[in-house]
Specification:
Structural class: mainly alpha
Number of strands: 0
Order of helices and strands: HHHHHHHHHHHHHHHHHHHHHH
Number of domains: 1
Largest sheet: none
Helix content: over 70%
Shape: globular
């Protein structure tokens, strides 16, 4: 597959600008404009592709709304109430606080859709609870928090799955359903690992919460626990679209925090709006750059050419998925997940379609790979976030996160080789794939 000189110049420009510190979205736009200049094409094509892509996909509106919902929840007392409820359920067992960390991430995942929001929000509280009185080392608590945060974008709602739906035309509703069982299995794999480790290292046992208090604590946490149910009922009951459900999630988080719990002040609400706006702008710039650069990639006929080459190698779906897993895991060590999703994955989709791989199954495998990149040394984003939060060194954190990474890789192999673990629930709701 021969690449033209203009395309090579565009690649050099993108890599060079990114290394100089320019945001990847802007680097892709600049490289794409250089390509158009070198080919003598109208510069207005870049703006046309950007506008058509940004304004014709209403599902993209779900991204800022889910981000806003997560920020509001982190600023209020929702995370604190959720942690108390989780502690009442599983805190009584050996290594109970570690199990609480997994359980709260599983529930929080049904509200935020963002791994970073999970780690930076409830993850801070878990870090404090686990390291208080020297119960767990800071590096172990941070490693577990980073690993459990990975589940956030797997269990619906999921911002990466919204972006995958944008580039693949897969149903976002069925993608959300497909993430439920894999997310639960990932949590189960970590809880089993914690149970084994707790016996070996003799982790502490927390004072059990009296059983008579659990109904009261459940009632107090009920508004938080109802949010995933509200989202799922709206989407799969045919009442709302995923985008409308995202708006309901943001509004529900606001009502629960401000009206029911009265835990968010006007200042904190403003801060949540400002933070979510910055995050949305960052993701929006990446999407804009990817839309323009994907137009360049399409002109060069790279997806179709690559698909023809791979099909000519007589690959079967399993070997393709194995190769894709290795590629995405390696890229996850070096690149930001959204960049991989918006730039690399669209090139792989035509080959997957030619091999008959289901797009919903592929979407879950892709998103799990990208999320694991967040805790893969040396450049996993969650590793850097938890290093700052915990005060532990990167070396200590990597040593403690590796067992969880291997457990999650085992779950990934299961999703890859047994598509029914992903597609069972969507098929139950009418999916024909």
């Amino acid at each position: 597959m021969m690449l033209s000189l203009p395309f090579n110049l565009a690649l050099v420009a993108i890599v060079g600008l990114a290394l100089l510190g320019l945001p990847m979205g802007l680097a892709m736009i600049c490289g794409s404009i250089m390509y158009l200049l070198a080919r003598g094409q109208d510069m207005g094509i870049a703006a046309e592709q950007l506008l058509n892509g940004m304004y014709s996909n209403y599902i993209m509106l779900a991204v800022p709304l889910f981000i806003l919902a997560a920020e509001i929840m982190n600023s209020g007392s929702l995370s604190e109430r959720l942690l108390k409820w989780c502690d009442a359920l599983v805190g009584r067992f050996r290594g109970g606080l570690a199990q609480v960390n997994v359980l709260q991430s599983m529930v929080f995942a049904g509200m935020s859709g963002s791994a970073v929001a999970d780690a930076a929000g409830s993850g801070k509280m878990m870090q404090f609870m686990m390291t208080k009185d020297g119960k767990y080392t800071p590096s172990y608590a941070a490693a577990l928090t980073a690993a459990t945060a990975v589940v956030g974008p797997i269990i619906p709602p999921s911002i990466p799955m919204v972006l995958y739906a944008l580039i693949s035309d897969a149903s976002i509703g069925y993608l959300f359903l497909a993430g439920v069982v894999p997310g639960l299995l990932m949590c189960l794999s970590m809880m089993v690992l914690i149970t084994i480790t707790a016996r070996i290292k003799q982790f502490p046992i927390e004072a059990p919460t009296p059983l008579r208090q659990i109904p009261r604590m459940t009632w107090e946490a009920l508004p938080v626990l109802m949010m995933p149910a509200v989202l799922m009922f709206g989407i799969y009951g045919g009442i709302t679209t995923p985008t409308e459900a995202a708006a309901i999630a943001a509004f529900y988080a606001l009502v629960v925090s401000v009206v029911i719990y009265r835990s968010v002040s006007a200042k904190e609400l403003y801060k949540s709006l400002a933070t979510s706006s910055k995050t949305t702008a960052s993701i929006g710039m990446l999407i804009a750059g990817a839309l323009v650069f994907n137009y360049v990639v399409t002109i060069e006929n790279i997806p179709r050419s690559l698909s023809a080459i791979l099909v000519s190698w007589d690959l079967n779906p399993i070997t393709f998925l194995i190769a894709m897993n290795i590629l995405l895991l390696l890229l996850g060590c070096l690149l930001e997940g959204t960049t991989i999703l918006l730039v690399i994955v669209p090139i792989l989709i035509p080959t997957a379609q030619a091999l008959g791989i289901d797009m919903v199954h592929l979407g879950v495998v892709v998103v799990v790979n990208i999320m694991l990149g967040l805790i893969t040394p040396p450049f996993g984003l969650l590793l850097f976030i938890m290093t700052r939060i915990s005060g532990s060194t990167m070396r200590e954190l990597v040593v403690d996160v590796l067992p969880f990474l291997f457990a999650l890789l085992g779950a990934l192999m299961l999703f890859t080789f047994v598509p029914d673990t992903v597609l069972w629930l969507p098929r139950l709701f009418g999916y024909q794939g």
